[in-house]
Amino acid sequence: MTTATPKIEAANPFENALQQLDRALHYLDVSPGMAEFLRRPHREFTVNFPVRMDNGEIQMFTGYRVQHSIVRGPAKGGIRYHPMVSMDEVRALSMWMTWKCAVMNLPYGGAKGGIIVDPRQLSQGEVERMTRRFAYELIPIIGPDQDIPAPDVNTGAQTMAWIMDTYSMTTGTPSPGVVTGKPVSVGGSLGRSEATGRGVMYTTLRALKHLDIPVKEARVVVQGFGNVGAVAAYLMQEEGATIIGVGDVSGALYDPNGLDARDVLAYARGHSNLIEGYPKAKAITNEELLTLECDVLIPAALENQITAANAGQIKARVIAEGANGPTTPEADDILRQRGIMIIPDILCNAGGVTVSYLEWVQDRQYFFWTEDEINSRLERMMDEGFYAVLKIAQDMEVDMRTAAYILAVRRVVEVAQLRGFYP
Ligand code: NAD
User: Fold this and answer.
1) Mean pLDDT per 10-residue run, the chain (423 residues)?
2) Distance 339 CA to ligand 1 centre (A)
3) Could you say which architecture CATH assigns to the domain 41-176?
């Protein structure tokens, strides 16, 4: 397997998240006490728990859940299974969820969780037992009105079904609304599995229109070929764009005449979800992928991929952040000076939490909408988010990330002030 280690310069994503917040606070009239309130996660939970492995041995795991904010509503955010999960990563991701929900005007705060694990080393039964035990440990702090988990890296609809079942069996109350991103038959929403990639596509189309780049002439590169990246790739292709490069943890592929994203996905599905060895394109490295000459670069893998080390070589005109935190603040400065438009993560990948919100609303009313209804609501909501952020960027002459933060922080502060501080 080709190595594809992410370049980590700012190893601490929470430091990055705080720097991004500070940039927005610079434009806002927020008291020092309120700023500190925004900087500090509301609640942090760590649990060490045992799981019986298939060979009969006990293995210990560490899991986290951080609720950054519950000001605008119940906490909301995904659960990630990855060997690099850390408390600071989860803190950063939970804070980004607060801003993302606020940018989209969803009635939620922000949360995130994770377990330090490489699930590919575990059997399906071991993953299920680990998930159920973690879900059991989370019961005091999650719930449809408290904190609603969802899928993230290496978790999916099946993981959510196990969490929903564990919660429902333990509390004695069938509770589909305790998690989103469930299978449709378990109370999930049509359109949820594609929602994040679809939102990336909608915001990218708006950015191309803003820059007067016809989508049919747009060359697109996608890093990360999972829930977000693969869907964004084939939806952009269906809109007429040419997908010239895609990459995942096993390496990257390049074809200047265009890859067929659905064909690559079908290949990956038959090869442990990896694109390595796909025969109809040239193999390149992940470093080469990120610096290909293109119109749109969609980082859709992990944090810290676009750093001070490679931002100077990026040749895209638009960066659509499918992943959370793919660009470091240092790289942001370089890209802004070079005139590259960034659709920031808290806007670009908000399609997932938006359809999660629609799923939760459907679960609470036990009444379900068609996929067309979901997609058209999603498009309208992404549109509102995109143009609200663009307007602030233009009016205040700031970059799109700072504009998105200004919008989000304003909304959180407004509610915090109206509610006041208990008691
Ligand atoms: P996923 O596990 O489905 O896919 C991740 C992809 O990234 C895989 O193709 C993997 O091979 C690749 N990858 C991992 N490490 C890599 C590396 N070092 N170099 C290159 N590629 C690498 O995860 P996902 O759900 O698609 O999430 C991807 C990103 O999008 C994450 O940052 C996540 O937080 C964010 N996100 C996901 C959702 C969602 O609904 N799933 C919503 C919002 C944001």
Assistant:
1) 38 91 96 98 98 98 98 98 97 98 98 98 98 98 98 95 98 97 98 96 98 98 97 98 98 98 98 97 97 98 95 98 95 96 98 98 97 98 98 97 97 98 95
2) 26
3) 3-Layer(aba) Sandwich (3.40)
